[in-house]
Amino acid sequence: MKTHLAAVAAVAALGGALTGYLVAPSAGDASSRRPAAALTGGPRHLALNMPDGDRAKAAALGYDLFDVDPDEDAVNALPEGAMAMLWVGNTTCGDFQIAGTGDFTETVKRLAGNPRVYGWYLSDEPNPDECPGIAGRIRARADIVHEHAPDQKAFASLTDWPMGPLKPSATHLDLIGLDPYPCRAGGGACDLDAIDTMVEQADRAGFPRRMIVPVFQTFGQACADGDRTWRLPAARQLQSMLDRWDRFAPSPAFDISYSWGRQSGWACPALTDADGTDGHPDLQTVMKRHNTRRDGPAATPRRPGSSSGSSSGSSPRRSPGPSSGSRSRTASPAPTPTPSPTSSPCPVPSG
Question: What CA–CA distance (Å, rounded) separates 274 from 281?
């Protein structure tokens, strides 16, 4: 889920916000961890592929969680109230950004005490069929987070590749992103049942609903250089997506908008374009209304920058890649996730 499309999380409930495992999980014990003190208030909101210069605009729309590299200065530079999701993972079967577990451990230790670190983005659309050892590699990193940074989350973004091998007892993840993209090119209605299908797939794999981080489609491919499978939803279609997601995850730990910025091969136009001008729908207003509600569906809106903090972003990175309810995630025809220029992941559209 980053600068290249790829898909992109769980925790015990804390006052309406979801929180996750804070000690190294044991098999089958995903729900027993104490809640993270750092995660209070309502759900946070992350928009992927955001240039640094767009942070203030995103903050005004209620975004308050941003993916950054594991750098203390980058974390501390975020606006007041914003938190960081640290990209240290791999995409599908690719190499991890921090290859060695020793180096990863030292990185986690270095940032474990920073209260502005929300969590660690450990993998973007891992495919256990193509890389059978990926669950164990994710688990090793999740256990390092739980041991050395128990108030921070271990997160990965999943898509509709096989999820069973990535079940909680196999990966020890706290939260998982799910990225069904209902609106395909060609016009007509968006297939909201794609959301149901992927959530049910996660259910069968043993992921509790509290682990689910919704990924919203805020991109199209009409001006993309590569695949043109998806289209930018209309404002009412995006609202329908949000309403459908509320059935399954009414108060998630956080949610993700993919994509804020354009990606030449996979996401164009994107949320940055969708402000109601130049023939684009006004998706920004829809997301602002969603992001600034207080605690859940039909809740009273809150002022951007209050409670959950003002939003801030990092350099462009992860963005959940397009997905449909039942797709075959192969290098072709769907775009395949690859590391972004800023060493961050990004979900890949799939067909």
Answer: 5
Give the mean pLDDT of the chain.
80
User: Phi and psi of 204, rounded to 5°?
Assistant: -65, -30
Residues 6+ apart with CB under 8 A from 197: 160, 180, 325, 326
Contact 351, 331 (CB under 8 A): no
Cis peptide before 269 (omega within 30 of 0): yes
Q: What are phi and psi of 109, to 5 degrees?
A: -60, -40
pLDDT at 20 over 80: no
Of 298 and 213, more confident: 213
H or E element in which residue 107 lies: helix 101-111
Two structure tokens written together for 305? 């920058």
Q: Which two tokens stand for residue 282?
A: 């006004």
CB-based burial label for 29 (10 Å; 0-12, 13-18, 19+): middle
Max distance between CA atoms of the chain, in angstroms, equals 52
Cβ neighbours for 240, distance < 8 A, ≥ 6 positions apart: 190, 192
Give pLDDT tens digits for 38-97.
344 689 999 998 888 898 899 899 999 998 899 999 999 888 899 999 999 999 999 999
Rounded to whole angstroms, the Cα distance separating 26 from 33 reads 10
Per-residue model confidence (pLDDT) at position 135: 98
Q: What is the pTM of this model?
A: 0.79
Interatomic CA distance for residues 77 and 91, integer angstroms = 26
- Residue pair 253/43 in contact by the 8 Å Cβ criterion: yes
Digit-coded pLDDT (tens) for 104-121:
999 999 999 999 999 999
Secondary element (H or E) of residue 215: strand 212-217
Q: Is 289 helix (H, G, I), strand (E, B) or coil?
A: helix
